[in-house]
Fold this sequence. Notes:
four-stranded parallel β-sheet, 13 helices, P-loop_NTPase, extended, about 290 residues, Rossmann fold, single chain, mainly alpha, about 5% strand
Amino acid sequence: MSVNTDRSYKMKLRDVENAFKYRRIPYPKRSVELIALLAISCTFFLFMHTNKLNSRLKEMEVKLQPSEFSALGLTGNHISGHDAGKHDDINTLHGTYQYLKSTGQLAGLTAAQLNNTPKAEREYVLFNRIEKVGSQSMTQLLGQLGRLHGFQTYRNEIPPVKKPLKTFEEEAEEAADLMDLSDPGAYVEHTNWINFTAHDLPKPIYINLVRHPIQKVMSAYYYQRHPVIYANSLLRNPNKPKQDKEYFDTSFNDCVRQRASPDCIFDPHSKYNSDWRRFALRLCGNQPVCL
């Protein structure tokens, strides 16, 4: 092969390589990086905008449902989390602690003073459980502990209808019935706090569980509308009014906005009593002020 022929062959081969090289890279490298940067920036700004819209939506829900949240002492900032980092807000746990500490109300309190177990006058646990706080699981735990440590756990019979408050005489009768149970032991019931001292009876060991008030109310709303729970309530109380399909299909938010049911109305001075007010009753007692 001559020199000119070899040179011509190499030039053609180089031209073919260059053709394939530029065909595989249709865009300049900097253009690809710019497109990637724009995609990341758009995703970031879209996330920020969506988060802002979500916060504004929650604030608008509070404005549309003022009675629900104001009755529980919450504002739009507490729901949306804007003040989550503000530890000086008295409506937060840390803020309340700091307020009580600054005013001297916590000056003399210690862990030993807040523990009511050593102050009990009976070896008996009274779990007057608040509704929708995991009390069924707690009851099962007490039963397991009883079998392990040799004490009996008692539960009350569920009455068809229960009044929000008991009279002093009814409370005295309930306290006397509890005295018939042997020590050591445990008793579980959805009942208001009992002032055993007022009835000249020894104090048991009180325990209870609490839950975020709004989550508790929502849980109770859907719990009462569960088919099995609703059917059991009709078996206990056959005279209970039957509900239509709308009662079960209405969401909690829609029920609150429309004030469609008594358990969706959160007026502080309403005579109707439901799960949203039983925090006070279970921890306060049978006095009218507890309503």
